[in-house]
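Appendix B, record 7
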Amino acid sequence: MSRTFDLPRAAAALDRRAFLRLAAAAAAAGLLPTGCGGVPETLAPPATLHLAVLSPRAYATLNAAGACIVGPQGAALIERRTVDVAALADQLLSRSPAIARPLSQGLAVLEYGVWPLVAKVQPFTSLSEPARDAVLADLERSRIETKRALFAGVRALVLSTFYGSPATRLLSGYPGPFGFGAVTIADGMEG
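Structure tokens (predicted):
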């Protein structure tokens, strides 16, 4: 499996038909939740944040998944909200309506989908970090293409927003865009 993150391609794999088939199977099995409780306070969006595309639940789900995907140092940045992956993703998705819908639907499946669709019986945001890691690992390694596409879409969204944030440059060693701020174009030409 390729380890690159191509957001439009991952979103295309989560097309409406695949999502509806997945949701119909869960509904037929009686697995869809009937109510919506609140998200954990540590994952909920700040009261001052206006979300254009993501719901508060999708915001929480994306930040929870992001903390698992980017590793311990990156998770600390997300938990402290130094990097707000979900807020950045909401801005990105508001400018990309073609991928906003399938990725929002994918986040709903990640949050609410239950076993056997997704390897869990509780909402994703209510799981412990090791349990979230296990759910994401199951999606990534599944033999079912739709589950792998769900992981790829979430991973692509997390990585493109996380590593696009200036606060992550120390983790990646990337000095920033050349020709802006303290990084000159000449810095980029050295080598």
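Remarks on this record: The chain has one domain: 7-189. The chain has a mean pLDDT of 84.
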